[in-house]
TrEMBL record:
Species, as recorded: Thermosulfurimonas dismutans
The keyword Methyltransferase is assigned to this record: no
Cofactor field: [4Fe-4S] cluster
Pfam families attached to this UniProt entry: Radical_SAM
Taxonomic lineage of the native organism: Bacteria, Pseudomonadati, Thermodesulfobacteriota, Thermodesulfobacteria, Thermodesulfobacteriales
Protein name, per record: Ribonucleotide reductase of class III (Anaerobic), activating protein
SUPFAM superfamilies per UniProt: Radical SAM enzymes
Keyword Membrane: no
Record SMART domains: Elp3 (SM00729)
Gene3D superfamilies: Aldolase class I
Location of the Radical SAM core domain: 12-230
EC class name: oxidoreductase
EC identifiers of the protein: 1.97.1.4
């Protein structure tokens, strides 16, 4: 399940220095995805499994310096009960704050993790206009439910929108707007053209800075959320 560990990050958990734990596997295949090694089974099998005990030891060793743990992927929620059991160990053995990154495909699990106090900060990727999720071979219904959970979190949550060429333009944001009402923080993430992507022919040019700024301004005009631009 655990395929990677970064001991210290200052950018992955808003307001906290954190460690990052990467879980392997994903139920989706977004063409612009950079996490090729963590998503494709034929690549994933080359990454060794890292033992939970070792990760918990590392977290405890860093405690005092780090204040949180980011659980990311791949898509962490595909691990269901195993994810829950791992988060229980993190919470009770280290008492660190936990941020969960998700594509929004498993609202039932996310709801139960939140209800049990196992997640302190939720980040969900909103990939394109709802009517275009079928282009990613993904279903928007569970994403909508996860967005509902996220809206109730009162600041301990964010929606991330990767500015993937051809998937996020103003008309897509227009369709996404109603789902972003009451969200407290929206982060626009720049697409990195140099990275390897799941679809090797995914269009490379990232959006020019003036277009990125105009999309951010558009969101600021229509939402009360904090709108961030991340590299
Ligand atoms: S971008 Fe996220 S949801 Fe999409 S394939 Fe990659 S890891 Fe999975």
């Amino acid at each position: 399940m655990i395929k990677g560990f970064r001991g210290t990050s200052v950018v992955d958990y808003p307001g906290k220095i954190a460690s990052v734990v990467f879980l392997g596997g994903c139920n989706w295949r977004c063409p612009y995805c950079y996490n090729v090694d963590l998503v494709l089974p034929e690549r994933l099998k080359n990454l060794p499994d890292l033992p939970e005990e070792g990760i918990l030891f590392d977290l405890l060793r860093r405690k005092g310096f780090i204040k949180g743990v980011v659980i990311t992927g791949g898509e962490p929620t595909i691990w269901g009960r195993r994810l829950k059991a791992f988060l229980e160990r993190i919470k009770y053995e280290t008492e660190l704050a936990v941020k969960l990154d998700t594509n929004g495909s498993n609202p039932e699990l996310v709801a139960s993790l939140l209800a049990e106090g196992l997640v302190d900060y939720l980040a969900m990727d909103f990939k394109t206009a709802p009517s275009r999720y079928s282009e990613l071979s993904a279903d928007f219904d569970p994403v909508e439910k996860t967005l509902e959970l996220l809206r109730d979190l009162n600041g301990c949550a964010e929606v991330r929108i990767t500015l993937a060429p051809g998937l996020v333009a103003k008309q897509d944001l227009e369709e996404m707007l109603p789902y972003l009402k009451k969200v407290k923080r929206v982060a626009l993430q720049k697409f990195v053209p140099e990275a390897e992507t799941l679809a090797p022919d995914f269009p490379r040019p990232s959006l020019p800075p003036d277009i990125v700024s105009s999309l951010a301004d558009y969101l600021r005009k229509h939402l009360s959320a904090e709108i961030l631009i991340r590299c």
